[in-house]
Amino acid sequence: MTYVPDTNAFSAYLAGRSKTLTDRMAAAFAAGELRLSVMVLAELEFGAEKARQKLGETKFIRRVEQLRKQIELEPLGLAFPQCYAKVRAGLEAEGKKIGDRDTIIAAHALSLGATMVTANVSECARIPGLIVENWELEAPSA
Fold first, then answer.
1. Is the pLDDT of residue 131 over 70?
2. Residue 133: what pLDDT?
3. 31 falls within a domain
4. What CATH number corresponds to the domain at position 110?
5. What is the DSSP annotation of 42-106?
6. What is this structure's pTM?
7. Beta partners for 133?
8. Domain residue limits at 8
9. Residue 126: pLDDT band by 50, 70, 90 thresholds?
């Protein structure tokens, strides 16, 4: 399986806010199943920069820097533009638009054939063909 966690999932992982999410992310990371979307990294870097300007060096900033070194950045490939266009146009036509960055991350996951990891299941589940999982809930039984 391939997983693309959204910004909130990576933020919760980096902050250790959810043991269930942290455990699942660590296992997927160790198995080489996680992908870091360029859009997610951009948002994490934005959050780190805001923290740096306000608070100086923080644990979160160091964790974002470490994440950048540990996991390969997944660029937007050739399949992304058309996938994004279809996703956004479909959502708008149905009057079910979601946030712009969420649309980009979801379309990126879809273009990779990956499962999107998010706590925002209700919005992302509106996207036809996108598999969505919330790893902040209890882990599935093996």
1. yes
2. 94
3. yes
4. 3.40.50.1010
5. HHHHHHHHHHHHHHSS-HHHHHHHHHHHHS-EE---TTHHHHHHHHHHHHHHTT----HHHHHHH
6. 0.88
7. 117
8. 3-133
9. confident
